[in-house]
Amino acid sequence: MTDEYFMQQALKEAQRAFEEDEIPIGAVVVQDNRIIARGYNMTEKLNDPTAHAEMIALTSAFSFLNAKYLPDATLYVTVEPCVMCAGALYWSKLRRVVWGASDAKNGFSRVQPVTSPFHPKTEIVTGLLEDECAALMKAFFKAKR
């Protein structure tokens, strides 16, 4: 399995969000080369502004492993995490965080561009399948305008 494969799985989650009229962001948590958790934005469905894809996937992964840290796991998310999610990712102590499209409006780098908000041991990979991830977001917001 490759990073591209797992990001495609995150894109499938983002498509689910899109189909449910949620901002189309999807995430998967991978450990030992298998998906242990999935999530997509559910802020409208759950009437909860914290129900981001990353938060849903992290909570599911913690529950699956019965653990509060994920030092051997990778999170794949279609869009750059916001400040709230970056904080949760920090505390989860993930081995890697991989995202597709940058988010100049709401991504963590908008408010903290100089230093990384992630755990010092976390490897960050950006821009994976960026065009595909960005296209879904653009299609969603174009339909809203």
From TrEMBL:
Function: Catalyzes the deamination of adenosine to inosine at the wobble position 34 of tRNA(Arg2).
Organismal lineage: Bacteria, Pseudomonadati, Bacteroidota, Chitinophagia, Chitinophagales
A Pfam family per the record: dCMP_cyt_deam_1
EC nos: 3.5.4.33
Designated gene of the protein: tadA
Entry similarity comment: Belongs to the cytidine and deoxycytidylate deaminase family. ADAT2 subfamily.
Lineage: superkingdom: Bacteria
Any GO molecular function: zinc ion binding
Cofactor binding, note field: Binds 1 zinc ion per subunit.
Domain CMP/dCMP-type deaminase: 1-111
Catalysed reaction, written as an equation: adenosine(34) in tRNA + H2O + H(+) = inosine(34) in tRNA + NH4(+)
Self-association and partners: Homodimer.
Top EC group: hydrolase
Coiled-coil regions, chain positions: none
Keyword list, A-Z: Hydrolase, Metal-binding, tRNA processing, Zinc
Signal peptide (UniProt feature, chain positions): none
Biological process terms in GO annotation: tRNA wobble adenosine to inosine editing
Required cofactor(s): Zn(2+)
Protein known as: tRNA-specific adenosine deaminase
Binding site for Zn(2+): H52, C82, C85
